[in-house]
Amino acid sequence: MIDADLDSELPTLSNEPDVLLIGVSTRAAAFSARRAGLTPLCIDQFSDVDLQSVARTIAAPAFPQDVERFARDLPPIPVIYGGGCENQWDLLSGLAQQRPVWGNPAEVLQRVRDPQQFYDVLQSTRLPALEIRSADNPPPGDGTWLIKPLHSGGGRGIHVWNGTSDADLADCYFQKYQPGSPCSAVFLAGKGPGDVRFVGLTRQLLGMPEFGGSGFQWCGNIGPINLDVATEMLVRRLGNILKWKFELVGLFGIDFVVDESGTPWPTEVNPRYTASVELLEWACDLNLLGEHCRCFDPHVCIQPFRVTGTPGGEVLGKAILYAPSDGSLQYAAGHGTHAWEQWPELGDLPAPGQPIAAGSPICTLYTSGSTEAGCLNKLKRLAEERMSKLWAPSA
Question: What is the CATH number of domain 19-101?
Answer without folding.
Answer: 3.40.50.20
